[in-house]
Design goal:
Distance between the termini: 27 Å
Strand content: under 5%
Shape: elongated
Number of strands: 0
């Protein structure tokens, strides 16, 4: 079956994306801190701290979604409850990131987000909510 490898791939992709988002926001926070840039009179130190905190929080969210995908891969069962909600929410986030990436970064980033979205949706769709039981004659 394709279910388990897709769950493993989604878990790895979400962990890599979590690290990348956190590292990018941390780097942007350092850049703001070193250049002492201000936006409309905001405190540069607060902007730097906000960027770092936002990156860590968003990275932790993506890592948590990766843990859910990892548990699905290890257990070979459908995600339930909060895990299913997290995977659905990360699919929506991937769709929104793809839409923003199209306008801000370009087509390759958009296609990357669409591939991740497709993998998450495939993970959600391949695991049936209720496993089929063999019928008795």
């Amino acid at each position: 079956m394709v279910r388990r490898p897709v769950a493993w791939i989604v878990a790895v992709v979400l962990f890599v994306e979590a690290f990348g988002i956190a590292a990018l926001n941390w780097f942007l926070g350092i850049v703001v801190d070193h250049q002492q840039m201000s936006l409309a009179g905001l405190d540069p130190d607060m902007m730097s701290l906000s960027s770092k905190i936002g990156g860590v929080v968003f990275g932790a969210y993506l890592a948590l979604c990766g843990v859910v995908a990892l548990l699905v891969a290890l257990r070979d069962r459908s995600p339930a409850g909060l895990g299913r909600v997290l995977l659905i929410s990360v699919a929506v986030v991937q769709a929104l990131l793809g839409a923003f990436a199209w306008g801000l970064v370009g087509v390759p980033a958009f296609l990357t987000m669409v591939v991740v979205l497709a993998l998450v949706v495939l993970l959600l769709m391949t695991y049936d909510r209720y496993e089929a039981t063999p019928s008795t004659p």
